[in-house]
Amino acid sequence: MALKSKLTKIREARWFSNLTTAIIVIYSSALGLKSLMDADSSYMTLMSLLDYFVTVYFLMEIMIKMSVEENFLDFFKDKWNLFDFVIVVITLIPLENSTMAAVARLLRIFRILRLITVRPGLKRIIDMLLGAIPSIIDIVILMFIIFYIYAIIGNFLFADVPSGLWDDFLISMLTLFRILTFEGWTTVMYEGMAVHPWSWVYFVSFIIIAAFVFFNLFIAVIIGEMEKLRDQDDHGHEDEMEKLDIVLAEIGKLREEIKALKSENK
């Protein structure tokens, strides 16, 4: 029990979280520098040693987290623990000396994702984005409908322009995506206006609907999820305060009972 208590303190310690963060950042920086430097033998040896060190450290970290659980299977009930476990297991697959050595080198990159689970703030952001997925899907579907309508209209109006940006439905969709990113969209508009002078209405209306309206819808969904998380936190604090008030009230009753017993004994 003493060992388990010490391991629990290590897992909950801030220095342990900061150490894991520092190791991930150093390892990620080393992977990035590898693409900027000549891979000589000394650097490759250093990277190999760093790779082994990170592998052993992550394995020890996951074992510490698993060992402090009351029930071993409780560790896998947390989605973030399961995420860490999958990443560690993937990087333990012995592919370095096989025909899939290139895949093994690519799998190292996934260790950087451990930074998400180490920092609570990053986990909250991911939870917020995951919670917004249903609403984002609805917005994307509505956006696809708008793209579909405008692509058909664009193909009908501008099929004969010299650039070939509206030759068929699929190319028209790509052209609309280009307009959405504001990449040379005025050039596309002026080319269309050479065929139909009033076609600026088509392009400006698409920019307003697709770029401005839908962009603000995405922002509104994300802000809404942030407010939901904040409300959940506030509700959790309220529940804790209510529990604390109940405990204090019980303590007050116990004190009164103790005083009453002492007065009876006298």
Comma- or semicolon-separated keywords:
flat, 266 residues, Four Helix Bundle (Hemerythrin (Met), subunit A), mainly alpha, 10 helices, 80% helix, Helix Hairpins
Give a written overview of the molecule.
- This protein is mainly alpha-helical and 266 residues long.
- The protein has 2 domains: 2-118, Up-down Bundle (Four Helix Bundle (Hemerythrin (Met), subunit A)); 124-255, Helix Hairpins, CATH 1.10.287.70.
- 80% of the residues lie in helices and 0% in strands.
- It is built from 10 helices and no strands.
- It has helices at 2-12, 14-34, 41-67, 79-92, 101-107, 114-118, 120-158, 169-180, 185-195, 200-265.
- Helix 1 (2-12) crosses helix 3, helix 2 (14-34) packs antiparallel against helix 3 and helix 7 (120-158) runs antiparallel to helix 10 (200-265).
